[in-house]
Amino acid sequence: MSQISLKDVSKIYKGNSKAVDSVNLGIENKEFMVLVGPSGCGKSTTLRMIAGLEEISEGRIWIGDREVNNVPAKDRDIAMVFQNYALYPHMTVAENMSFGLRLRKYPKDEIKKRVAEATQILGIKNLIDRRPKELSGGERQRVALGRAIVRKPVAFLFDEPLSNLDAKRRVQMRTEIHKLRMRLQTTFIYVTHDQTEALTLGDRICVMNQGKIQQCADPMTIYDKPANKFVASFIGTPPINLMDGRIIKKERKYYFEEGKFQVKIVEDMHKILAPYEGKEVTFGIRAEDIYDKLFVSESTPDNTIRAACEVVEPLGSEVYLYLNSGKNQFIARVGAHNRPEVNRDMDIVFDMSKVHFFDKDTEKTII
Ligand code: ADP
Q: For atom 16 of ligand 1, which residue has the closest CA?
């Protein structure tokens, strides 16, 4: 049994439709689980139901082998780390961190040991006698975290902890969270709307949309084998290129066609796509699977199209090309040295072994 389990969990706020809709999820011991999705998809509500801060409308939640539906937040043995951490201004760092344990009447030696361990983990040993006003924002955040660590909870829940930080600091803090996780060896559930944060931090990522889990898997599976069009387009920067068109068969070969745009489908995919012959599908290709023909050794007319390069966007280590082939636009992500001339037609090559196809009606992945 998972350490934290959600079975058919839903949340219906008064007067609203389902904010969380029949969620089934198991989080393993010491796992780093990320809940990711666009704003309003139900991530925070899910987290808050696990923490006990929000009532569960339907379904059941277990922590260990205990059903916690009716267990108050303070008795769930879980630490929720908020963006806004309230420290007691008149207490020192050590007193702030030990406050909860003192309330629960832990022995003095145990409290001392736990505070020492936590300050060591967080690298704030030298600050224990300071008061909050003598600390930087980052240090205060650590103390707030320390307060949670000393309780030795079964899981840490984080709700968008980095959303107030600027881009550079976010990247720094990502590494910090990584390190913290390695040191603490505890279960983490982490909510973010940022797909890069999800990909870099999660052992598994649970992608949500409109209250429902779309896919829950390790980051590479989510990226390489998205379950549906939503997951494919939500995960990845720049977003995957998508195009509606038709599967056609000519002389025993299959093609994807949309107006004048036509590319040959690799043989490995024939069997799975055969039932879609003549039907409309959505074609998807990631930006890194599109190349400038001048920079590839293998290309055939079947996987090459003409397109105008409308914008060249250098990003330092790589370049985004904004391409236009009549009705269709694509973004390609190419090497830093690859700088085609703007507003000139060029040949672009599709790596057809990497493309995705989605069912036009259900939006589920075909291949
Ligand atoms: P996310 O964390 O993914 O941004 P939330 O879980 O906060 O999403 O919200 C999910 C949905 O529930 C949204 O449509 C939101 O407007 C609604 N919602 C959240 N909290 C409340 C509330 N206290 N009362 C009514 N509706 C709410």
A: 40
